[in-house]
Design goal:
The protein is an alpha+beta fold. It is 45% helix and 17% strand. The chain has twelve helices and twelve strands. It has a four-stranded mixed beta sheet. It has a four-stranded antiparallel beta sheet with strand order 5-6-7-8, covered by helices on one side. It has a four-stranded antiparallel beta sheet with strand order 9-10-11-12, sandwiched between helices. A hairpin with a 2-residue loop joins strand 9 and strand 10. It is elongated. It starts with 7 loop residues before the first helix and ends with a helix.
Length: 334
């Protein structure tokens, strides 16, 4: 039994279902935080877990910065255990088991091919690769040879909506084409998450939801690509440069508007973390954002004692000393 054995009505469902789910992953519209929170809470309830504290951040890198701030402060256990793919399989395990029994292998293979999602390889894989490379050195400095286990645990908690498109569309087709309506509610949970969330890091106590990128660019062969600019850009400036699908070395981002940030730091009563003086420059490491559901930020303020010139540069959360922040900037990381 293959695709040829399906009725015309069943065959017509394939492109409709595929396009519906692929539309979710192509959105660059900012997420609706209330809808995202409802989607996340529904997953926790279905998995038999208590509703978590939900933190919204602007990018996957910001999520890792938030997690790393807990690691550096020895508060990693605050997150709780990672909720990985084994937990998620509870959402669709019964349907998957039924399909294995009811559908011939040939038809299953044909349907998986029909709903295959190439966007995952073109978008998710390079972005994850860049993040892993970026945080590998940081984790190694903190944990030595144990860094692999730490990063593996963190990334295993990350559920990417794009990765659910192929499976979700396949399951929806089977439910509608073969009338397996008893699984409709759990499919709706998957659909709601895929439709309303960006990359999301699931832990028992805290769930960190990332916004979608503001921009994603492809070439004529649907490979990540942009000339002289980033192919993926998030609201906080985190980006990925790619040429014909190959990750490029990230360009030096433009410095934050110094006067604007200096005023904002003053208005928000930024907390001083550390200071350091070198030659005629006085550096202060500052932190804003201690309220619930507000993404924290670190900034390095540099004041030239001769000219009075002020520079303000955003610094990753894992950096906790002014001198370390200066070294980070001088290495070309900022």
């Amino acid at each position: 039994m293959s695709l040829d054995s399906l009725t015309p009505e069943q065959k017509a469902l394939i492109p409709l279902t595929r396009e519906k789910w692929q539309h979710f992953e192509l959105s660059t519209k900012a997420i609706d935080q209330q809808k995202a929170a409802d989607a996340v809470n529904a997953i926790y309830i279905t998995l038999g877990l208590a509703k978590p504290e939900i933190i919204f951040v602007n990018s996957p890198n910001a999520a890792l910065e938030y997690i790393w701030s807990l690691v550096r402060s020895h508060s990693y256990n605050t997150l709780g255990s990672a909720i990985n793919s084994q937990h998620w399989s509870k959402l669709y395990s019964n349907l998957h088991s039924l399909l294995l029994v009811q559908l011939p292998v040939t038809l299953q293979n044909d349907l998986h091919s029909a709903f295959e999602n190439h966007f995952v390889k073109q978008f998710t894989t390079p972005l994850k690769q860049q993040l892993e490379n970026q945080w590998r050195d940081i984790a190694y400095q903190q944990f030595g040879n144990k860094y692999r286990e730490i990063l593996k645990n963190i990334f295993s908690s990350c559920q990417k909506p794009e990765s659910l498109v192929a499976g979700g569309s396949f399951f929806e087709f089977c439910i509608n084409a073969f009338n397996y309506r008893q699984f409709q509610d759990k499919l709706l949970i998957l659909e709601t998450f895929t439709k309303n969330c960006g990359w999301t890091f699931f832990f028992n106590n805290i769930c960190i939801v990332c916004d979608r990128p503001q921009k994603v660019s492809f070439d004529s062969k649907n490979r990540l690509h942009a000339e002289d600019e980033a192919a993926i850009v998030f609201e906080d400036g985190y980006s990925l440069y790619a040429n014909s699908g190959q990750i490029q070395r990230q360009h030096q981002p433009k410095s934050i508007d110094d006067a604007a940030w200096a005023r904002l730091l003053e208005e928000l009563n930024a907390t001083e973390i550390d200071s350091w003086e070198e030659y005629k420059l006085f550096y202060t490491l500052l932190r804003i954002g201690k309220r619930v559901n507000v993404q924290p930020h670190h900034f390095l303020r540099a004041i030239n004692s001769d000219t009075g010139e002020v520079r303000v540069i955003k610094i990753p959360l894992y950096i906790t000393s002014a001198r370390e922040a200066v070294k980070w900037i001088n290495r070309g990381q900022g």
